[in-house]
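A common beginner's mistake is to predict each chain separately and then try to dock the pieces by hand. The better habit, illustrated here, is to supply every component at once so that their relative placement is modeled jointly.
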Amino acid sequence: NAGVTQTPKFQVLKTGQSMTLQCAQDMNHNSMYWYRQDPGMGLRLIYYSASEGTTDKGEVPNGYNVSRLNKREFSLRLESAAPSQTSVYFCASSAYRGVISQTTQYFGPGTRLTVL
Amino acid sequence: EDQVTQSPEALRLQEGESSSLNCSYTVSGLRGLFWYRQDPGKGPEFLFTLYSAGEEKEKERLKATLTKKESFLHITAPKPEDSATYLCAVQVLGSSNTGKLIFGQGTTLQVKP
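With all components supplied together, the output reads:
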């Protein structure tokens, strides 16, 4: 049971390049989330998918797109990378179904992205 | 606006010196409060969930408590391996269909031997 996995672990891009961050979970969770973490800013929600087939914007969605490929996988795409997108990106998942006892989010190891 | 504030930003303790970390929140309605531990270069690791005022949970040297306005993470007789950043997050009423969390900025704890 690997939990939440993310690829790649590190990436360096030039301004204007595109890339996709991959996330997969093997816990049969319904909901998946993408966050970015910047010094002094805490974790901020970019996009989330409450269930397979649905995606919604979070706090900082500009410059990103997402795809919920299936129940296991949730990808984050940067179409035209900018230096302001230099950050550490975390994927998380939860079993959330509206049941209060299933709200805990479990995080992946992160992708460290630098945009030059 | 829903907000989560953690204090202090950084805390240095000697091994064995007990202390507390604070997480205060102003939200429209609390559904749950979460504590995570994050080691450098790693993702947040789940510690506790608290759902109602008065609730307490313990794990080894850590004890989390919850009131209507804040939560405390008490660290008793800490060891160097407790050094990490501790994150607090809340789930608010109205996010019941999504499970979204609002995070504080974290408290970085350093425990010296």
